[in-house]
Design a protein that fits this description.
By secondary structure, the protein is an alpha/beta fold. It folds into 2 domains: 3-216, Rossmann fold (3-Layer(aba) Sandwich), CATH 3.40.50.300; 231-406, Nucleotidyltransferase, domain 5. The protein is 37% helix and 20% strand. The chain has 15 helices and 15 strands. The strands form 2 sheets. An 8-stranded mixed beta sheet has the order 3-4-5-2-6-7-1-8, sandwiched between helices. A hairpin with a 4-residue loop joins β3 (91-95) and β4 (100-103). The radius of gyration is 27 Å and the shape is elongated. The N and C termini lie far apart (70 Å). Residues 1-11, 257-267 and 409-429 have low confidence and may be disordered.
């Protein structure tokens, strides 16, 4: 862009009466290349998108920006009139038949439908908005639109209301992690729009299911759960009832280099160290320590937990990861003169869903599990209530289920002994 063009651009921008809500200003002012915005209904996300389309088009040296909705009809209904209204001072022409707006600097804003991907091939884009991204096939961006941003190093904004734990959720969590500085995530509820009467939201809540309200107004990524575990089964207490023995179960994440793909297995798996006191009254979950650590860091975390709680037994999920962590863990034991046996935990040829169900469902339903209050509660309960949603991680839940292998508590019930394993009537295991 030449100096004269730059000056013209600044003058043109001054002609625009840009007014933004506080939450919109936060997103607007950020320079991250790929912005992920999850927001409830009527927050003003489409209006923010319109302003960003107009300004980015005015600042583009080569002039194509796209607005993409799930269908072309939605693109027209959501954005066409808004763009004409807000961009009126800088629009030189518009063509409703092909849904294209031309600005005074020669740049164009095109409205597209993700249901017609063939209309978006072969272009070079400076900026792109994908609206209601949760309702699109992710291939549209990954195979068509992402390459269109490459030669100009263009930017993109993904906006929408969540629809469970689908690809929009995966993208949001990827950005939220902060490992990739080119991605950033924001989350806003309908209450974040000061123009929207909160009483109206409260009124809507009374006529909606709790799930629908959380999704549509609170922008919750909550999946429609299997209801394997229910909220009213969960008990909290600040201390366990009666004496008991501590057990520690460890579900290890891999220690390989994390690649940049937005997949469950390579991006978000964590090591979980579960500390549980067991007595005839049930399980008291004292603590869950979790994170993504190096091999040595993981060994230190396990060793510290053992020193802090002095468990009767320690178990680690078998596999390559266990073999890897045992060496630094043994070194720590020798160095500090603190020795303990590590049991090998096995899934027993059972699917994870079955193993978790048999180990935990009965115990929670019958009140044999109590949680200590701690910072880990939110992460654990999120995983518990969504289990076995394939897009929700279950590391903490899986680790807790392993306690069943370490501590088989005998209750005052009659039960039969299986030839291969002890049967606990509460867990069904």
């Amino acid at each position: 862009m030449t100096c004269s063009q730059h000056q013209q651009c600044l003058t043109t921008l001054m002609d625009l009466d840009i007014e933004l809500l506080p939450w919109q200003q936060d997103v607007w002012a950020d320079n991250t290349r790929f912005k992920i915005v999850a927001a409830g209904r009527r927050t003003g996300k489409s209006r923010l998108a319109a302003w960003m389309l107009i300004v980015n088009a005015l600042q583009a040296e080569r002039g194509h920006v796209f607005y993409v909705a799930p269908t072309q009809g939605q693109a027209r209904d959501i954005m066409w009139q808004t763009l004409l209204e807000l961009g009126n001072p800088v629009i030189s022409g518009s063509h409703i038949n092909n849904l294209q707006i031309k600005l005074v600097n020669g740049a164009t804003i095109s409205l597209k439908g993700a249901d017609r991907p063939e209309t978006m091939r072969g272009v070079s884009l400076k900026f792109l908005v994908l609206d209601e991204y949760a309702d699109m096939k992710p291939d549209v961006f990954e195979q068509i639109l992402r390459p269109a941003l490459a030669d100009q190093k263009g930017c993109a904004m993904f906006i929408g209301t969540p629809m469970g734990r689908n690809h929009f959720y995966e993208l949001y969590k990827y950005a939220e992690l902060g490992d990739d500085e080119t991605y950033k995530a924001w989350h806003f509820t309908s209450y974040d729009n000061p123009i929207l009467d909160p009483n109206e939201i409260d009124t809507a809540k009374k006529s909606m299911s709790s799930y629908a309200f959380r999704q549509e107004f609170m922008a919750s990524f909550e999946a429609r759960g299997s209801e394997m575990f229910k909220e009213d089964w969960v008990k909290f207490d600040t201390e366990s009832s009666g004496e008991g023995d501590y057990y520690i179960a460890v579900d290890l994440a891999g220690f390989e280099e994390v690649n940049k793909k937005r997949t469950k297995n390579t991006k978000l798996d964590e090591t979980a160290i579960v500390v549980v006191k067991v007595n005839p009254n049930g399980w008291y979950v004292e603590n869950i320590i979790y994170g993504r650590w190096t091999l040595d860091e993981t060994a230190v975390k396990i060793f510290q937990a053992v020193r802090d709680y002095e468990p009767l037994s320690v178990g680690i999920e078998k596999g390559i990861a266990k073999q890897a962590v045992m060496s630094p863990l043994l070194d720590l034991q020798k160095r500090h003169g603190t020795f303990f046996r590590v049991e090998e935990l096995s899934h027993g040829n059972k699917k994870k869903t079955d193993r978790v169900m048999w180990a935990l469902q009965g115990r929670f339903e019958n009140g044999f599990v109590t949680l200590n209050k701690g910072e880990w509660n939110s992460r654990f309960l999120d995983q518990l209530f969504q289990f076995p949603d394939p897009l929700t991680h279950d590391d903490l839940v899986d680790a807790l289920a392993y306690i069943d292998q370490l501590a088989n508590v005998v209750y005052d019930y009659e039960y039969e002994i299986d030839d291969h394993e002890i049967l606990d009537v509460v867990s069904g295991y």
